[in-house]
Amino acid sequence: MRRRPGFTLVEILIVVVILGVLAAIVIPQMSSASTQAIRAHLGRNLQAIESQIEIYRANNAGLLPTNDIDDPMGEGEAKDGWGILVSSEYLQSEPMNFFADSTVLLGGDEATAIAAGPDVGNGWFYEAVGNTIRVYAAGYDRVNDTLSTDTP
User: Fold this and answer.
1) Number of H helices, E strands in the chain
2) DSSP structure class, residue 107
3) Residues 6+ apart with CB under 8 A from 135
4) In the chain, which ranges are E strands?
C-alpha cells in the first residue's frame, strides 16, 4: 500500500492543543492591557478637567463657572452638563468616560462615582464644595487606580 502525503489525525490534534494553550495564556493578557488603558485614560482626563477648571478660575477672578450648586459648570451650549467649560472652549468637547461609555456629568460624591459600574448611564460625577469643584470618573477609584469591576 502506498501512503498519501498529509497530516495524521494525531498531528492535527497536537497542533490544536498547542494553539489552545497559547490562546489561554495570551487572551487574559490582552484584556488586562485594555483595562490598564482605560484606567490611564480616565486619570489623564481627570487631570485635564481639573486643570481647565483652575484655568477658568484664574481667568475669572477666582470664580467658578456658576454659583449654582446643582449646575456648577454653568449654562452654555454644551450638552451633558459640561456647560461653559465646553462652550467657552476650556474643554474641546465633553470628555468621554470609556469605562461607562458616557459623557454625561451629574452631581454626586466620590463614593457614588467609585461604586458606579459601566452601566450607570453617566460617565462623570461632580461635587461642589465651597469654592471648588471636584470631578470624579464613574467607576474609577483614582487613589487605588482601580475600576469598580476589578476584583479585590
Assistant:
1) 3, 5
2) E
3) 46, 49, 50, 53, 105, 124, 125, 126
4) 105-107, 124-129, 132-137, 140-141, 146-147
Nine-digit cell string for 109: 460624591
Q: Does the residue 55 lie in any domain? A: yes
User: How long a stretch of residues is the chain?
Assistant: 152
Place of cell 458616557: 102
Does residue 141 lie in a domain region?
yes
Say how far apart CA 57 and CA 48 lie, in whole Å: 14
69 touches 132 (CB < 8 A):
no
Q: Is residue 152 domain-resident?
A: no
Number of domains in the chain: 1
Asked, for residue 15, whether it belongs to a domain, the answer is: yes
pLDDT for position 67: 64
Per-residue pLDDT tens over the stretch 37-75:
999 999 999 999 999 989 988 998 888 877 666 677 776
Could you list the residue range(s) of the whole structural domain that residue 95 is in? 10-147
User: For residues 89 and 19, what is the distance between their CA atoms, to the nearest angstrom?
Assistant: 51
- pTM here is 0.73
Q: Cell 486619570 appears where?
A: 43
Task: Tell me how far the alpha carbon of residue 24 is from its chain's centroid.
Answer: 27
